[in-house]
Specification:
238 residues, alpha/beta, TIM Barrel, 11 helices, binds ligand LLZGTKA7
Length: 238
């Protein structure tokens, strides 16, 4: 099937599996499609750095989605170790504050060897968080968009490359932080797909129309009986 290579490179497939073998099977089924691979907690805690290395050896761009949130010194050490893995992107929580985010960048400087510098991005408000949950359970007043923008501005001030947010907030983030400030947007559901635990969602085509840099898609591909067909249908839709 013919597809837009530029769009394929901007689709991050969330490899949310318990075992390396399951993730390897998914990656094999997508062979030839140059999507970005996202390794999250479930797979990394089980399969570890060697799985990341295998993806890199196969030529994939890798986003290590471990969402670090700790004291600055610990995040600095984590960022140093992650940088040594040679990933292309990793993230921290903006809620850890400016000093913590700056510490992540210091860790990158320490861990940098010959390879490329990874992009460091900050999680704003998780895409599973609704307005009611944010206001009433977490205790943050105002709109989700305002909270996301505050975090985005903080991340920009700290020198990070971008943020994780929902596609609903992309236009305001770009207006506020500039077009080069990267947006990575989960909460993506093809029309009619089960939303599951996500709250702030858009279709792949709508998200790209907002101007997002990357969309993150997990279960609509990984839970499909035909993952390659699901990804091809998404590519056709954008
Ligand atoms: O705010 C966030 C931050 C990260 N994620 C991650 O993206 C994928 C989404 O998976 P789906 O199956 O498409 O819902 C998953 O790995 C999350 O950990 C997010 O959803 N929202």
């Amino acid at each position: 099937m013919a597809f837009d290579k530029n769009k394929a490179e901007r689709i991050m497939v969330a490899l949310d599996y318990a075992h390396a073998q399951q993730a390897e099977a998914l990656v094999s089924s997508l062979a030839g499609i140059p999507c970005y691979m996202k390794v999250g907690m479930q797979l990394f805690y089980s399969a570890g750095p060697s799985f990341v290395q295998k993806l890199k050896d196969q030529g994939y761009h890798v986003f290590l989605d471990l969402k670090m949130h700790d004291i600055p010194n610990t995040v600095k050490g984590g960022a140093e170790s992650i940088t040594r893995l040679g990933v292309d992107m990793f993230n921290v929580h903006a809620a850890g504050g400016r000093t913590m985010m700056e510490a992540a960048l210091e860790g990158v400087d320490k861990g940098l060897q010959a390879g490329n510098r990874p992009a460091v991005i900050a999680v704003t408000q998780l895409t599973s968080t609704s307005l009611a949950v944010m206001n009433e359970e977490i205790g943050i007043a105002g709109t989700v968009e305002d909270a996301v923008l505050r975090y985005a501005k903080l991340a920009r001030t700290a020198g990070l490359n971008g943020v994780v947010a929902s596609p609903l907030e992309v236009v305001r983030i770009k207006e506020t932080c500039g077009p080069d400030f990267m947006t990575v947007t989960p909460g993506i559901r093809p029309a009619g797909a089960d939303i599951g635990d996500q709250s702030r969602v858009m279709t792949p085509a709508e998200a790209f129309a907002q101007g997002t840099d990357f969309i993150v898609i997990g279960r609509p591909i990984t839970a499909s009986p035909d993952p390659r067909g699901a990804l091809e249908a998404i590519l056709a839709s954008v």
